[in-house]
Amino acid sequence: MFSNLGVWNVEGAGHWIFCPAITRVYPIGAGCITVNGRLALTVQLHHALGGTLEKSRATLDAWVQGCLAAAASHEVPPEVAIPRSASPLASA
Predict the structure, then answer these.
(1) Entry pTM
(2) In the sheet that 28-35 helps form, which strands lie side by side, from edge to edge?
(3) What is the pLDDT of residues 29-47, one digit of tens each?
(4) Residue pair 87/80 in contact by the 8 Å Cβ criterion
(5) 30-34-36 Cα angle (round to 5)
């Protein structure tokens, strides 16, 4: 499940992160929010996927690289998909 809370400018808000709740039915949670010009991305994997911290970090890294590649090409796709072959979950 993916959720984008949008862009917020709130003086003194500090740094924010969040992630949608995950379940066996929705085993991957990904969220983003921009607060005071700082983008935060989060990923959480349900344990049913073998969701280790390493897999979560690898999934987040793949997502970030996909976002950076889209930004570098100046294309704004409706979503940035991680090719299944590049996903750390491909073997799960």
Answers:
(1) 0.62
(2) 2-8, 28-35, 38-45
(3) 889 999 998 888 888 888 8
(4) no
(5) 155
